[in-house]
Design brief:
Elements: H1 12-27, E1 54-62, H2 67-70, E2 75-80, H3 93-96, E3 102-104, H4 106-118, E4 124-127, H5 133-145, E5 152-156, H6 162-167, E6 174-177, H7 184-191, H8 196-211, E7 215-216, E8 222-231, H9 240-250, E9 257-261, H10 282-295, E10 298-301, H11 307-311
Parallel strand pairs: 2-4, 4-5, 5-6, 6-8, 8-9, 9-10
Antiparallel strand pairs: 1-2, 1-3, 7-8
Helix pairs in contact: 1-5, 4-5, 9-10
The structure holds iron/sulfur cluster (SF4).
Length: 328
């Protein structure tokens, strides 16, 4: 098969080595940079509040991701419960803060991923999976043995340790990380992660070393590479221009696919913070978009959406568990 995903060529011994490495991290938890040190296999909870078994809030074909990911048949998306960031403006707060979701065995997730492939999904899109890494890897190995053969997308908040990214080498084909902040002050205030900028920049470099520039097949569907998401916040709070400078100085802009997002709305507790309590304006967004384009970055540059368009792909995880998300 052209562009066969790398995980199809991993030996059982190589899978086991990766699972062992992930289990060692989870036993005194360092699965993310918070390094809480709790024993996840004993059910001890750290900052993310994740239990000692996998929890999934929704799993369905998603037609609202970037075009190279959703393609014509959707991205097979798995939303894991809990999060290592818990941003106070999170639009998925039901799963990141409120623990919506149900326990999934390794076998059940493997079956569901194969089922997404049977439904025609172009890829398996793992959303915030790092705090369940040992279980996720075992599911992926099982699914691969049962015929899974589409690319694996690692969709995350970008707060990842390089150690975890190293384990994912030859398993993940497409990295879809956020660069949420370019300044430590906002990262501390809104995501309780004062080290976010340093950690995020190191993770982005590690992801690019592994996956390289985003590559698409003849239908424009991605099969490997890095796509960086950035959500512009009001009042320049995300430090967008600092992120732009980092990217310009670290990469050839022609190699980097950016998904620049204008869809911010004050979700969860954002309304309690005056500076986050409104959407962004056209005057804030236009110079940002122009700067990325002028620098030569490839990608997907969202327009400031109509009020109703904003809500098209908003997900209520209390009601949507398996049904495809088409925006209709
Ligand atoms: S995954 Fe959770 S428990 Fe583990 S280090 Fe990160 S926040 Fe702490």
């Amino acid at each position: 098969m052209p562009h066969s995903p790398s995980y199809l060529f991993l030996s059982p011994a190589a899978w086991q080595e990766k699972i062992d490495a992930a289990e060692a991290l989870a036993a005194s938890c360092r699965l993310c940079p918070r390094a809480c040190g709790v024993d996840r296999f004993k059910g001890e909870k750290g900052f993310c509040n994740a239990p000692g078994e996998m929890a999934v809030a929704g799993i369905f074909p998603h037609h609202g991701e970037e075009p190279p990911l959703s393609g014509a048949r959707g991205s097979g998306t798995v939303f894991f419960s809990h999060c290592t960031l818990r941003c106070l403006f999170c639009q998925n707060y039901q799963i990141s803060h409120e623990a919506e979701g149900e326990c999934y065995s390794v076998e059940l997730l493997a079956r569901k991923m194969v089922d997404l492939q049977k439904q025609g999904c172009h890829n398996i899109n793992l959303v915030t999976a790092s705090h369940f890494l040992p279980w996720v890897l075992r599911s992926l190995q099982m699914a691969a043995e049962a015929g899974l053969a589409v690319p694996i997308v690692y969709n995350c908040g970008g707060y990842e340790s390089v150690q975890t990214i190293d384990i994912l080498n030859n398993i993940v084909n497409i990295y879809l990380p956020d660069m949420k902040y370019g300044n430590a002050e906002s990262a501390k205030k809104f995501s309780a992660a004062p080290d976010y900028v340093r950690v995020n920049q190191a993770a982005i470099k590690a992801m690019f070393r592994q996956a390289g520039p985003l590559k698409c097949d003849g239908d424009g569907v991605a099969y490997r590479g890095l796509c960086i998401r950035h959500l512009v916040l009001p009042h320049g709070l995300a430090g967008t221009f600092e992120i732009l400078e980092f990217l310009k100085s670290s990469f050839d802009p022609a190699d980097i696919f950016i998904s620049l997002m204008a869809q911010y709305f004050p979700a969860y507790k954002a309304g309690e913070h005056k500076e986050l309590s409104r959407k962004i304006t056209a005057e804030e967004y236009a110079p940002v978009k122009e700067a990325f384009l002028e620098a030569g970055f490839n990608g997907f540059f969202q327009e400031i959406a109509e009020p109703q368009a904003d809500l098209k792909f908003k997900i209520d995880f209390k009601t949507r568990k398996n049904k495809a998300l088409t925006g209709e």
